[in-house]
C-alpha cells in the first residue's frame, strides 16, 4: 500500500538526532518533542489532506449513569476491549445498554465499515473496522470514537491507512495525559492523509481486504491443525 501511495519519511529526517521548532508554532499549544517530531511528517505523490475535510461523522458514544455491569441484555455496547490487534471488532466480552437508552444515542449506532478508534486508556489509538453484520445497529461507549467518511473517501481505504504503522505512530504522538492517556477528536481530524483518486482508493482497499481475509483464513486453519494434533496426542496417551 505504501508503494502504491509513495508514502515515505525523508531519509535525512530519520538520521537527525535533534530538531528545532519555532516559538510561533508552539505558542499556546503542546510543548513536547514527540508531538513535533519530523518523523511524523510524511510525503506522498498524492495530495495530503486533513481528515476533517473528508469526514461525515466523528463522535464518541456513551453509557447510562451507573455503568452496565448488571445489564444482561439489550443493545451491545462496544468498548476498547472489543477491538483486536488485527483490527477485528468482536462481540465478547458481552456488554449491553438498555434499548431505551440506545434510542437517545442513535447517532453512534453502528453500520458496516464504520471505523472505531480507542480514545483513551492503555490502547489509545487502536483502530478497528466493523465488518460483521451482527455488529450493525449496536452502539459504542464513551471510550471509542466512531468515524465515517464522505463518499469521496473509501471507508476501508481509510481503515488501512490509519492502522498502518506510520499513521499509528502519528496518532500515538498526539496522545496526552499522564495518569489517564487519551486523544481528543480534533487531533484525529487534523491528521493529514494521502487522497488518491477514488479508483486507486478502491483498488488498495480491495487488495488489502483480500490479503487480510486470507490471513484470517490461514490463522483459522492453523488453529484447527493444532487442535487436531492435541486430540491425536491425547488419544495416544490416554
UniProtKB/TrEMBL annotation:
One BP term from GO: DNA restriction-modification system
Keyword presence, DNA-binding: yes
Highest taxon above the source species: Bacteria
Keywords: DNA-binding, Restriction system
Domain Type I restriction modification DNA specificity: from-to ranges: 66-207
Pfam family, one: Methylase_S
Keyword DNA-binding: yes
Cited InterPro entries: Restrct_endonuc_typeI_TRD, Restrct_endonuc_typeI_TRD_sf, Type-I_RS_S_subunit
One Gene Ontology MF term: DNA binding
Similarity comment text for this entry: Belongs to the type-I restriction system S methylase family.
Annotated protein name in UniProt: Restriction modification system DNA specificity domain protein
Source organism (scientific name): Brachyspira pilosicoli B2904
Organism classification: Bacteria, Pseudomonadati, Spirochaetota, Spirochaetia, Brachyspirales
Amino acid at each position: 500500500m505504501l508503494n502504491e501511495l509513495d508514502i515515505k519519511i525523508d531519509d535525512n529526517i530519520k538520521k537527525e538526532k535533534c530538531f528545532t521548532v519555532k516559538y510561533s508554532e508552539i505558542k499556546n499549544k503542546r510543548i513536547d518533542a514527540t508531538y513535533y517530531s519530523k518523523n511524523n511528517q510524511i510525503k506522498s505523490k498524492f495530495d495530503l489532506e486533513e481528515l476533517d475535510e473528508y469526514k461525515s461523522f466523528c463522535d464518541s458514544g456513551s453509557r447510562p449513569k451507573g455503568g452496565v455491569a448488571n445489564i444482561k441484555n439489550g443493545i451491545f455496547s462496544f468498548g476498547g476491549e472489543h477491538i483486536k490487534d488485527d483490527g477485528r471488532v468482536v462481540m465478547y466480552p458481552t456488554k449491553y445498554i438498555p434499548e431505551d437508552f440506545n434510542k437517545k444515542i442513535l447517532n453512534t449506532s453502528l453500520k458496516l465499515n464504520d471505523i472505531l478508534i480507542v480514545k483513551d486508556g492503555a490502547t489509545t489509538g487502536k483502530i478497528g473496522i466493523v465488518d460483521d453484520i451482527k455488529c450493525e445497529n449496536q452502539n459504542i461507549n464513551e471510550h471509542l470514537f466512531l468515524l465515517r467518511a464522505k463518499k469521496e473517501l473509501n471507508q476501508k481505504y481509510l481503515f488501512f491507512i490509519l492502522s498502518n504503522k506510520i499513521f499509528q505512530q502519528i496518532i500515538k504522538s498526539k496522545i496526552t495525559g499522564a495518569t489517564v492517556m487519551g486523544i481528543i477528536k480534533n487531533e484525529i481530524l487534523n491528521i493529514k492523509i494521502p487522497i488518491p483518486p477514488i479508483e486507486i482508493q478502491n483498488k488498495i482497499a480491495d487488495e488489502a481486504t483480500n490479503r487480510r481475509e486470507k490471513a484470517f483464513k490461514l490463522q483459522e486453519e492453523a488453529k484447527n491443525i493444532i487442535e487436531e494434533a492435541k486430540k491425536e496426542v491425547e488419544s495416544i496417551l490416554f
